[in-house]
Amino acid sequence: MALEHAILVSLLEQPGSGYELARRFDRSIGRFWTATHQQIYRVLRRMETDGWISVEEVAQDGRPDKKVYSAAAPGRTALAAWLREPVEAETVRHELAVRIRAAAFDDPAALIPEVERHRDGHAALLAHYLYGEGRDFPAPDTLDARQRLQHVVLRGGIEYERMTLAWLDDVLATLRELAADTATPSSDSGTGTAAPTSTSTSTSTD
Amino acid sequence: MALEHAILVSLLEQPGSGYELARRFDRSIGRFWTATHQQIYRVLRRMETDGWISVEEVAQDGRPDKKVYSAAAPGRTALAAWLREPVEAETVRHELAVRIRAAAFDDPAALIPEVERHRDGHAALLAHYLYGEGRDFPAPDTLDARQRLQHVVLRGGIEYERMTLAWLDDVLATLRELAADTATPSSDSGTGTAAPTSTSTSTSTD
DNA sequence: GCTGCCATGTAATCAGTTACATGATTGC
DNA sequence: GCAATCATGTAACTGATTACATGGCAGC
Description:
The structure is a homodimer of 206-residue chains.
Chain A: H1 3-13, H2 18-24, H3 37-49, E1 53-58, E2 66-71, H4 73-84, H5 95-102, H6 112-136, H7 145-183
Antiparallel strand pairs in A: 1-2
Helix pairs in contact in A: 2-3, 6-7
The structure holds a DNA duplex (28 and 28 nucleotides).
Pfam families (chains A, B): PadR (PF03551), Vir_act_alpha_C (PF10400)
Organism (chains A, B): Kitasatospora purpeofusca
Domain Transcription regulator PadR C-terminal (chains A, B): 92-176
């Protein structure tokens, strides 16, 4: 239910068309909230009928016309009300964690390439964030309110990537150790499928 | 599309009924993948017709009967295939980050209680994780493959909470500074609604 | 008598994804 | 000639959430 609000913030930061918003959702805002262009167009129409945003049709030379949206007063009011609502608990979807636990019932080594791919992706994103930080916030003491809030969100992204990177290295080390363990012992040779099948497990980790 | 697989992992770790699974999804597995009981019952039926899991009806004294599900061979095969598929990019939904950027167009101080509530929640979860780690993994060198993988996932949760806690303190410090800035200056008194309205913003943070 | 736990479900709705469609312009 | 970018949309489907429903037992 927050796509409306994410769009509002983006339009307050800078008015734009549905297409432009879709591009922003592939970049800056998209790090925190994903949306496809179909979704965006649908929500924009709803927001317009609700009076949250206003449209201006802009004719262009050589390019299709576009509808430039900007936040209207009722939208601002709705945003202020939303800020005062309690935050709903974030629904987590961390597929990699599920896969790591799943690896116990298959060959742990099979996961290594995937985790490496992830690791590299996070490393690249961290480098990208750090570059962006140096470019956009070179003098952190001279920033206005908006920039300081953008900066603290970016710092969150940077710390998240740093932490994830370190954790994925930990995961890789664990997987490699387990792969070495199952490879060397003499018993249970062949497929490499390590399935302990112990009935006792009540490690709740609750 | 990974709820099936999360359920499979949970049933491989320990067979159980839909109700028991729903409770697990409020606890251990639920940290990485959320699901309500309605969703779980629906997926369990689909998985059963697909032959991924087998059922055993268990009559109980004083309590309603339950259907105890366990992972079947085709389910294991499907899990192994899934582990070898490329991981789809995680769709992020970080509402708090959107709200922080939104605070620039309203009173930043209005967010402080919410962020504090979040901070406290993450601190409690971190303490809980650390307690669970001490209880379930007291001797990290004597663990089997399954436990070592569970442990590395738990370490990820711990590091995530630590990082989030530190970041939320950073956010709170920023919000409090901004609240102090808008409270003290003589100009633009009254509502405390700080809206810069500068047209120049093209800080892409891409 | 009320709340809470165990245990399973149906129905309606909302959000999000995937596939398909159009059409002009710019650059290789 | 082909792919990519700009720009907007429809339609069908899958996944997730919310609300409602049932019913016995245990403990206060």
